Amino acid sequence: MKSKVSYDDSQKSTRKSLFIWTLLWLTSFGMTTFGTILLWEKAVIPSIISIFITSCLGLKMLGANWKNIKIQDEMYQKINLEAIAKAFGFTLLIGFTLFLLFIADITTIDVNMSIIAVVMSICYVIALVIGQRAYK
Amino acid sequence: MINKLKVLRAEHDLTQADLAHDLGVSRQTINAIEKGKFDPSLSLAFKISRRFDMPIEAIFKENTEK
CA of A67: how far to CAs of A75, A83, A103, A134, B25, in Å? Predict the structure, then answer.
């Protein structure tokens, strides 16, 4: 009888943890954003408390993500590393291109954190899917 | 790198999932190694050699055709 926890079972457990912490961080981020503007109208103390809670949840999310990557086997770690590198590279390229277009008054898209986050997430998911297909 | 993993697995009557479980990796990784799409690390190669009780060089060979 094999008592060792299987690779798939440990993967499920860490993915569930990552999903929960990501959901909590996103909820807290949303509440902080809307609360700061609509509820406590930029009052310092509630803003600091809310931002502190969001940051703590963000750290827990990072920890869960780190654990999720560490527990993956070597092929999936390689796929992940390649996807992260591609996402980082493409985001820099797209970000600086948009910035140059903006300062040249060719586009009205002002590069900000939300655009960077969306571009990086999309690039990461695409690179991850391509990586997984390459090793099939 | 070319390997005899698929042959050895068949000789030992193991599925990809069985071998993956024994080695602590995913079934997809075993599949990729068998197809020659992924070269395992030295650590995983040692685990494979121990699992089949064979030296590493009897399982893995350098692909000189490339």
Answer: 16, 17, 41, 24, 16
